[in-house]
Design a protein that fits this description.
The protein is α/β, with parallel strands linked by helices and 530 residues long. The chain has 20 helices and 16 strands. The strands form three sheets. Strands 5-4-1-6-7-8-10-9 form an eight-stranded mixed β-sheet, sandwiched between helices. Helix 14 packs across helix 18 and helix 16 packs across helix 17. It binds GDP-alpha-D-glucose. GDP-alpha-D-glucose binds next to strand 11, strand 12, helix 16 and helix 17. It comes from Bifidobacterium psychraerophilum. It is an enzyme of class 2 (transferase). One of its GO terms (molecular function) is alpha,alpha-trehalose-phosphate synthase (UDP-forming) activity. Its EC number is 2.4.1.15. Keywords: Glycosyltransferase, Transferase.
Length: 530
């Protein structure tokens, strides 16, 4: 059995430079690192090749050697890219051309021959790093849209190599894909692999349709394309899972419990601890005194002061129980955050009885902050949150609690655990791990998932409240239904989904792809391999 060489845009670890100038590595969060990371950790002969994120222009040769050593001690081989390479290959062709195109946002895609040129060069840079590393019998598993030319480049150098390629995002219909001026080169690049993997059967079909339309090639009954050099490229679906136990366990950690408790207190689901209860008492007293004195605002205070509202709810039985909605996303236009906010606003307007009783915790992690489209999106979301909070807030209640920082995994799991409802409504998403993580953090309990039908996860999580994320009225209604669902009903829906997630984890996904690659490339029996 040969080694597994994992190749991805970024390595699973980033460099930290401390005040005394020493270097250390920090584990990256995110789907890819958490899905393949454990395989890399436990298979002591695997090697991970990827961009370090370090600008070589900022360090001396000796420092670069030290950084390289740090990575190599974790079986990682760092690639150093100049600022120009990063601008052209990463910010340019990968994020500004392929990302929008693959997510059906062709109108946002920038077709620039210059970034395409740099993209080709950087794929070659990856090839040159791989060449001296590879040994006979190794399997190479290339990840994602940043490295679509690499499979064919590698095939040309090593005709007998065993190569897999997996796409973490959707593959669009042939009619959308063909708008890319270099669509044929990209397809040929991918088809250098022995195994081409997607999250869903639909994406695999779109890819096969694009190959038929643009390269006039047809797959056999088993979904294999025979290429001019004689090698076969098989195409199949491998839906990615999560480390279910990790999320389940983390949601029960002390920090996650504290976070959950804090959110529930702030949302009025539990009696308030010191600060809020004293605020409530003071507000009650102030409002009562004012009412006696006939102050002009006393009526308003009695009607609207949420501290009174919450106190009254607890004492007299509220018409609505207090509830928490949560969402966790990278701040990306594919995640449908503005559309979702409009649906939430619509719900507050259509069902005003929720005012003072529902709080939306919106965690929007910064992403690609130096790209203009992302800066505009951030402004748009800031503005919408401000507008909704401005319009609907009561004196001590705001409809949206907005966080735009990246948080460690424990608080993230605390947020998931606190959510009576998770609102996961991407406009397009390869899989969406957040929906799965939410369910793992609600293992054995209630909690309703409102899920977009435009993500890969919808195929597996059919018991969720499935919606079209573009349909404001439908999302508003699904959200309302999810908030109204009984605890028993939501727990029942979750059991079926959780059972699936427990059996199809990140580890089984990883092992499944590698074993399929071994089969199609017939690594073990061929002595002609590398
Ligand atoms: C791509 C595809 C596919 C987010 N904020 C924080 C944080 N996160 C974590 C989540 C989750 C991950 O990031 C996001 O994964 P998604 O699947 O939702 O989305 P993408 O980042 O776009 O991932 C996607 C995935 O690849 C895997 O193939 O599912 O379709 O687009 O794990 O929890 N984690 C922490 N702090 C945060 O602030 N710790």
């Amino acid at each position: 059995m040969g080694r597994l060489i994992i190749v991805s845009n970024r390595l699973p670890m980033s460099l930290d430079v401390s005040d005394d100038g020493s270097y250390s590595l920090r584990q990256n969060v995110g789907g890819l690192a958490t899905a393949i990371g454990p395989y890399h950790k436990t298979h002591k002969d695997s090697v991970w090749v990827g961009w370090s994120g370090v600008d070589p222009g900022q360090y001396s040769d000796e420092e670069i050697d030290l950084i390289r050593e740090q990575y190599e001690s974790r079986r990682c081989v760092p690639i150093f890219l100049s600022k120009e390479e990063v601008d052209g290959y990463y910010a340019g062709f990968s994020n500004d051309t392929m990302w929008p195109l693959l997510h059906d946002f062709a109108h946002e895609a920038n077709f620039d021959p210059e970034t395409w040129r740099v993209y080709q060069e950087v794929n070659e840079h990856f090839l040159e790093t791989l060449v001296p590393l590879l040994r006979k019998g190794d399997k190479v598993w290339i990840q994602d849209y940043h490295l679509m030319l690499l499979p064919q480049m590698l095939r040309e150098r090593f005709p007998e190599a065993s190569i897999g390629w997996f796409l973490h995002v959707p593959f669009p219909s042939p009619e959308i894909f063909r708008s890319l001026p270099w669509s044929r080169e990209i397809l040929e690049g991918i088809l250098g692999a022995d195994l081409v993997g997607f999250h869903t059967v639909d994406y695999a079909k779109n890819f096969e349709g694009s190959v038929e339309l643009l390269l006039d090639k047809h797959s056999d009954d088993e979904g294999r394309f025979t290429m001019p050099d004689g090698h076969e490229a098989a195409v199949d679906a491998f839906p990615i899972g999560i480390d279910y136990n990790l999320y389940r366990r983390t949601s029960r950690s002390n920090l996650a419990r504290m976070m959950r408790r804090g959110i529930e207190e702030a949302a009025g689901k539990r009696p308030h601890s010191r600060y809020l209860s004293s605020l409530t008492a003071e507000s009650n007293a102030a409002a009562e005194a004012s009412a006696k004195e006939g102050n002009w605002w006393s009526h308003y205070a009695h009607e609207e002061l949420p501290e009174l509202h919450l106190a009254k709810s607890a004492a007299e039985g509220s018409p609505k129980p207090n509830k928490v909605i949560v969402s966790v996303d990278r701040l990306d236009y594919t995640k449908g955050i503005p559309e979702r906010l409009r649906a939430y606003q619509r719900m507050l307007e259509k069902y005003p009885e929720w005012a003072g009783h529902v709080t939306y915790y919106l965690l929007a992690t910064p992403s690609r902050e130096n790209v203009d489209t992302y800066k505009r999106l951030k402004e748009q979301v800031d503005q919408l949150v401000g507008q909704i909070n401005g319009k609907y807030s009561l004196l001590a209640w705001s409809p949206i609690h907005y966080i735009t920082r990246s948080l460690p995994i424990k608080p993230v799991c605390g947020i998931y655990a606190a959510g009576d409802v998770a609102l996961v409504t991407p406009l397009r998403d390869g899989m969406n791990l957040v929906a799965k993580e939410y369910l793992a953090c609600h293992d054995g309990r209630d909690g309703s998932l409102v899920l977009s039908d435009m993500c890969g996860a919808a195929a597996e999580l059919s018991e969720a409240f499935i919606v079209n994320p573009y349909d404001t009225e439908a999302v508003c209604e699904a959200l309302h239904d999810a908030l109204e669902t009984s605890s028993e009903e939501s727990a029942k829906r979750n059991i079926a989904m959780q059972a699936r997630l427990k059996s199809r984890t990140a580890a089984t996904w990883c092992a499944g792809f590698v074993s399929a690659l071994e089969q199609v490339a017939d690594v073990s029996s061929s002595d002609k391999r590398l």
